Amino acid sequence: MAARHAQSRARRRLSRRSKAVGGLALSTLVGTALWAWPASGDDHSGRPDAKSGATRTVSGPNTPAPHQAAQEAARGLRAIPDLSDAARKRIPANARQVLVVTGKDSDSYESRVVLYTRAEGSDLWEAGPSWAAHNAAHGWTAQHHYGDLRSPEGVYTLTDAGGRLPAPGGTKLPYDHNSSFVAHGTGVEGEPLAGAFDYVIAINYNRVPGTSPLDGQRPLGDDKGGGVWLHVDHDGPTQGCVSLKPQVMRELLRALDPNLHPVVVMGPAGH
């Protein structure tokens, strides 16, 4: 009998130890689980990582997640490059096409042209291809006048086009198909000008928008020059215009849309 009581007491002590150990193990496991998986919705910005001790950065409610920022970067640009803040501010709010002509420097007649577009309601600009171009023989000026052989810097609307050849299919700007679009003589460096005005897009510098590029009205006076166009390149500098290869002019005529209020921003880099 005494032996049986002793065995019973031993079994009860063993059972109590097993329960204590089991309870400790369970509480340890549950505690670890609660630390590793915090409640959903908590802000854990700046908390140390358990394994590495490094600080984790978690996006707040007003900060785009990294993948979202990458997607935005892939879609477009929030600011058109190579322009000064002053030039950006002069771009009309309703403009959804901006043709940027960037001169190599203030005295160079070499430039690059890119057409930027944005969707309605979006502030992300999409860049098109980059094209080589020529501007005036002596470069750029903010105070253009007749005969200075410099292209006028600035932001100008694009509303009218024309040319000696018929408008390419898909042209949206009003187009004056006219045999008077003929360039006479030679260029600044003696190159022939034949075909230079096959396609023309008028730059609204010192002209009346809504008229043919051939219109001779000069609201600022004749001394301020005029007839500043985008036209076909003749393999040399211009007297004030911007010239591009024929296929580029055709592409621009198909792309520019008066419903998107296109403008040209032109001058040396950073103007």
UniProtKB/TrEMBL annotation:
Basic and acidic residues bias locations: 41-50
Domain L,D-TPase catalytic, chain residue ranges per copy: 111-266
Region of interest called Disordered, as start-end residue ranges on this chain: 37-74
Keywords of the record: Cell shape, Cell wall biogenesis/degradation, Peptidoglycan synthesis
A GO biological process held by the record: cell wall organization
Keyword Cell wall biogenesis/degradation: yes
Cell wall biogenesis/degradation in keyword set: yes
GO MF annotation list: transferase activity
Source species, domain of life: Bacteria
Pathway(s) annotated for this protein in UniProt: Cell wall biogenesis; peptidoglycan biosynthesis
Record-annotated active site: H231, C241
The protein, known as: L,D-TPase catalytic domain-containing protein
Source organism of the structure: Streptomyces noursei (Streptomyces albulus)
